[in-house]
Design goal:
Belongs to the AB hydrolase superfamily. Lipase family. Class 3 subfamily. Keywords: Disulfide bond, Hydrolase. By secondary structure, this protein is an alpha/beta fold. It has one domain: Rossmann fold. The strands form three sheets. Strands 1-13-12-10-8-7-4-3-2 form a nine-stranded mixed β-sheet, with helices on both faces. α10 packs across α11.
Length: about 350
Amino acid sequence: MAHWRAEQQARMYALEKLDNFRWISNIMAGYGRQELSEDDVVPETTLQYSGQFSEIVYSSVSPELLIKHYEILAQPEFPLEHFNALRDCITAGSYRGTLADVPTYIFIRRNSGQTQLVVSICGTASPDQFRQDLRVLKTPHRSGHGNAHTGFLALYDGIKADLMKGIQDLVITGHSMEGSIAYLLCLDLLADYDAMISTLRIRIVSFGAPRTGDTQLVNYFHTKVEAFWQRSGRASFVEYAVKGYSDGIPAVPPVIMGYQHFCEEPFYSAYGRLYRVPTADSEYATFRFKDGENQNRTLFPQGSHNYYNSRDLEGFRRKLDWLVEAKFPEPGWEDHYRDKLRDSNSRS
């Protein structure tokens, strides 16, 4: 078993082409003051479902087409293997931002007799979007309460008009830059909560998101959360901001520039486990463990930006590219895809 795992890891890391920002983590991510322990471990199930939606929007194939052909694409070693949250969902809409062409999808998921609306925003996937990442100077937020990252706010403004139409009961999720945009959407929803139905429940789930606002804007966000809780109960708004081991993106922009994370009680994903981070350490991006670092618990011991939810995001995107090259869903695509798979396995 250990030998098989080592071979899998060697093959996976040999195929890495995307930047996983481990170098940023090494330079900028200070260790939290408190060591994490078994007492801090929480179940990952809810986040894994949300994570599947945050990952599928990176697809080079339209999510509508992937979901339509879910059964065949969920076979072993096919792109949607382990994406079981997509089994009972449909796409309800898709939008492209007016700035940098940010893809955003709305899914309807039926789970245990309940219908859930999921808004999933794609993370940085193009040079234009990366240029917005670099606009780290702050700009005043329209609420008049503090400032936000200029690039993230501009990207959010590019998709806001479409997203604010008819949102009711929902999950908002995003990976990387789009985790920040998800929070800006949440802030607008909470600021306008008088216009919402009283039974609205919001869950925001972000993975590897950078800091987005200054202290004043973050404090304003928390006053709106408190007001929402007062009206609808604490179960009406839940947030899961997940930082990953060796992922440098949650460490930027740096605190010294006046930035702060929105979430006061984030989570830390490392070595196959999810830990609850103490509020006092919410700005830290990496942690030590009382029970040591058990790398044998996971296939992804090096962690970093593209290994959330116990999945290899780069490997997922690679398989989606193979679908395009195989001319999915034209006749014969499956044979061409399997050829790509065999060729990759033989070379690695």
